[in-house]
Amino acid sequence: xxxxxxxxxxxSPPGFTPEQRRILFVSFVVAFLSLLSVSIVNVVLPAIEAxxxxxxxxxxxxxxxxxxxxxxxxxxxxxxxxxxxxxxxxVIGLLLFGLGSLAAGLSADxxxxxxxxxxxxxxSGLLNPQVTGLIQQYFRGAQRGHAFGLFGGVIGVSVAVxxxxxxxxxxxxxxxxGWRAAFLINVPFVVLGLVGAFLWLPRSAWRPAEAPRAAQDxxxxxxxxxxxxxxxxxxxxxxxxxxxxxxxxxxAGPVIWLSLLVGLVLVAAWLAWERRFGAAGRxxxxxxxxFRTRSFANGALLITVYFLGLTSxxxxxxxxxxxxxxxxxxxxxxxxxPSAIVSAVLSPLAGRHVTRVGRSxxxxxxxxxxxxLILSGAAVLLHYAAGTSEWWxxxxxxxxxAGQALVVGPNQTLALADVPLRYAGSAGGVIQTGQRVGTxxxxxxITGIVFSVVAVAGWELAFLVGLGVxxxxxxxxxxxxxxxxxxxxxxxx
Length: 493
Prior knowledge:
mainly alpha
């Protein structure tokens, strides 16, 4: 989110070099797996419940435990990649993710499954900031926009394809091995990812990011541990965990909401510590001056609000299709397939032109997302009022996918455009933390509202209320984009 339009003499980015293509292939396959694991459980939860006799609370943790672990360490792992080398953190995260997937697929009870999901989430939290850091490090200008556009496609497709794949596995392998395969399928791809990382990531990716300090620092990696800012890591990680916790454990009673207050206090303490750490001449985990950069601050806020709303659509859609209409898990997953295809096709195109079009592209994407939500609500109303087919949602959700293609990748490009390379990992971690916190809070909040309405009025009204809440939240994300656009125009006068 630099100015609303950044002039570029190139109509499209130059082609990627062979090395760049290899970096993207390895990074995107692994990122796809880690993000797929957020959504694939949406349609396999009934099978898990029957297999391991999981309670409703345990099922909630299967959904949210992964996201909690994922979100808590994103910023710290991004900074660790800046300091110790992104290739190292990428491999460590991939190993954890693979071991957690193997353990999850072989789980005998809900406790073991939830613990395994946490390990998977920690692995994802370690490796995902390295993907954005590698793009920042090895791509420039229009090429970077194109790369982030492709990454936006990976995000969009992984969210929509997860339920499809889960439904296919249940249909082909049966309930018991279907849900287990939803986790075990990661393992062979993790092995391939590890081989690809060692063979294809450049040697420079295994060293600290370019920075004056790092270049002149003769200490070995373990001697630079203090630069990771352990106090800052603990304060921010604990703060994020406590902020997210009441939205996951809302059944624990009113007292759980005290953790939200404590979490906010810890984040405030982290901000104070980071200022002190920087004033002492050290490199803080996150340079707070980044938040004085309009493009970064507004981009992080916009995508947090956007994910607060939009990712919930796939959860309540899967529940409505299965519990409200009686469809199979496969049918519930298939309804999001056109959205995934449209997002995959349009995301690279959006990435090619975002540096020329600028912020207005993201705003057009939000308008398309709002149109898709409104049309989906109309399709549901017509289904109940006039008996039309619910499968009209295939078309309305495709409009939603088009909007997603113009928002996620382009926003990431614009938000990170002015970030120094030495903070590429931590800055990418901040943005992804916003996505994960927004996703966790949004899913817990919106599904809570939907289930409350289901209890008194049934699925027809509940699904429409859920769509309405999501629409309001996406409109708020659009308001952030409008403010950024106006600020950019004033700055150019």
